Amino acid sequence: MRALNKLSDALAQTTIWFAAFTVILMCLHVAAGIVVRGLFSATLDGTVEIVSHFYMVIVAFVPWAYVQRKGEHVSVDILLAVLPEWANRVFRVIANLLTLIVLSYFAWALMDMAIRQMGLGELVETGTMDIPVWPARWIAFLGVVAMLCVLVVQLLQPGKDFDDQVKDDEASALTEEGGV
């Protein structure tokens, strides 16, 4: 189980770093467009399309695995605050199972759309070129699948809370390094 936790953590870390790098790249791309417009009275063709069809898809979907791993999705805990711990754990398992079902359907729908759009060669037209945007469909699919992987690992340990999993992983890492 520790190996699955490590894999889940590595996947989550990879997704958040990829999304963070994409935010930086997006800022540089937009800034370059502003500089080109200001200095040369020209535009970087395709900037809006690349930002909206690629960068934003990555930033919106890819970090879901990290957010799930850390237990930081939006939640309303008003009812859970007054229930005993065992009831909280039961509700979390039920919520995670429902999330698994919904996300599995969502992943299936994204995959179906990605296959269809790839087959059609989905493009977006700019002033001077056509940009293939079907790869962004696969990026969204992979982001959802990454979250599903993290979620499955969490469901395999229903007695553990998100914080417990992270603490156990950190403790085992210290033990392996000889720190404790």
Automatic annotation (TrEMBL):
GO terms for molecular function: transmembrane transporter activity. This is TRAP transporter small permease protein. GO terms for cellular component: plasma membrane. The complex comprises the extracytoplasmic solute receptor protein and the two transmembrane proteins. Keywords: Cell inner membrane, Cell membrane, Membrane, Transmembrane, Transmembrane helix, Transport. It is found in: Cell inner membrane. It is a multi-pass membrane protein. InterPro entries: DctQ, TRAP_DctQ. Residues 26-157 form the Tripartite ATP-independent periplasmic transporters DctQ component domain. The chain crosses the membrane at residues 16-36, 48-66, 86-108, 138-156. Part of the tripartite ATP-independent periplasmic (TRAP) transport system. Coiled coil: none annotated. Pfam families: DctQ. GO terms for biological process: C4-dicarboxylate transport. It comes from the Bacteria. PANTHER family: 2,3-DIKETO-L-GULONATE TRAP TRANSPORTER SMALL PERMEASE PROTEIN YIAM, TRAP TRANSPORTER SMALL PERMEASE PROTEIN. It comes from Sneathiella litorea. Belongs to the TRAP transporter small permease family.
